[in-house]
Write a structure and sequence with these properties.
Two copies of one chain form a homodimer. By secondary structure, the first copy, chain A, is mainly α. The first copy, chain A, has one domain (about 55-205). Chain A has nine helices and two strands. Chain A has a two-stranded antiparallel sheet. In chain A, β1 (about 30) and β2 (about 35-40) form a beta hairpin. In chain A, α4 packs antiparallel against α5 (about 80-95), α5 (about 80-95) packs across α9 (about 170-205) and α6 packs across α7. The longest helix of chain A is centred in the C-terminal third of the chain and has 35 residues, at about 170-205. The first copy, chain A, is elongated, with a radius of gyration of 21 Å. The termini of chain A are far apart. The interface between A and B is large, with 87 and 86 residues.
């Protein structure tokens, strides 16, 4: 199909498709003349993926590029594969902690929680958690230790489920871990709101 | 303190503070002359809150305005209060579903999941879940029913913990539900990644 057909099939404008092509987010089509190219179903899937990552998962185009690079060039062993999936996720989301007076206390809490769960103390993830704890504290939101332990227990339930959806085939597993996590993050948060409404109705005796 | 003092206390530039004032995100200071005003600790907390909502929770300034309006004008009864907290959350996050051929199937799955959990079928939340299921499906991410049921069970754990942190005093409870949810959303997602790393290490026998 021509670029206008790709636009029709994906609901993405021709101008946006040309932008994806220039930025390397979409591989070039097969040239059919000096000014025209032909696109196929792999292009349709790639455009849908870029849209899902930007719109649903809310990633920047730079972050989408990192995730696509990990998907397009997966490492050979399954162990390396899951490692690089997690690195791509963490790197794509970025964020540098701004250290201040509350930072040390927040980082201490993050390290303690991770040690208590027996989780790995990847400094990128621990720093990110510390920064998020610091931001909540600065906004006046109180997060008692028991509360954080409940969130951590729920995270173990989600992660166990996440792992069962990643099948044995390495490339498919990488795709499922990276995309599955990014695209189900919003689902996790919506389910939290639904469960909150139910929990507060129960508490009010409705 | 003068506006330069407020900037120093919060780490936010004078230009940004003036923007918050113009947009009504920060109440005016007490006028001390025709061109100067004096700010106090309530302004420091408000600036920190606006920063946390924009930077950590990733809300737009329009969405921050909706959340602040709910916080500044809480309804009288506790039941109305939790209801308006959830409406402020859902409205602040917005999003209109784009209906297409996969929409009906996704919405049917969302309705089924909600009915199975005995959750309330608030159409705003059900539509949002349906849109997120559709987006994951369009990107080629498979979400089996058992997987969604595990996510929903984890959401119940989080929501039960969320409710225990909201104390009996209505204004504080509203603040904790709205801000607590927005500011701990990123924490929930970080914990998920930490738990995933651990789960994949266990699966690889590391």
């Amino acid at each position: 199909m021509r670029i206008s057909g790709l636009a029709a099939a994906t609901g993405v404008s021709v101008a946006t498709l040309k932008y994806y092509l220039r930025e390397g987010l979409l591989p070039p089509g097969r040239a059919t003349s000096r000014t025209q190219a032909s696109y196929d179903d792999t292009h349709v899937s790639r455009v849908r993926l870029v849209r899902a990552l930007t719109e649903s998962a809310g990633l920047s185009l730079g972050a989408v590029r990192d995730v696509l690079a990990a998907l397009d060039d997966p490492p050979a062993s399954r162990h390396d594969l899951l490692g690089s999936a997690h690195r791509a996720l963490v790197a794509a989301e970025g964020g540098v902690p701004s250290e201040d007076e509350e930072w040390d206390a927040a980082r201490h809490r993050a390290v303690e929680l991770v040690a208590e769960r027996g989780w790995c103390d990847d400094p990128l993830l621990v720093d990110r958690l510390a920064e998020q704890l610091r931001a909540a504290g600065a906004a006046g939101v109180d997060l008692p230790g028991d509360y954080l332990r409940s969130l951590a227990a729920a995270a173990d339930v989600v992660a166990a489920a996440d792992l069962t959806t990643a099948g044995p085939e390495p490339e498919a597993a990488l795709r499922q871990v990276v995309l599955g996590t990014l695209l189900t993050d919003p689902i996790v948060l919506t389910l939290r709101r639904m469960a909150q409404v139910r929990a507060s109705q129960e508490a009010s005796g409705v």
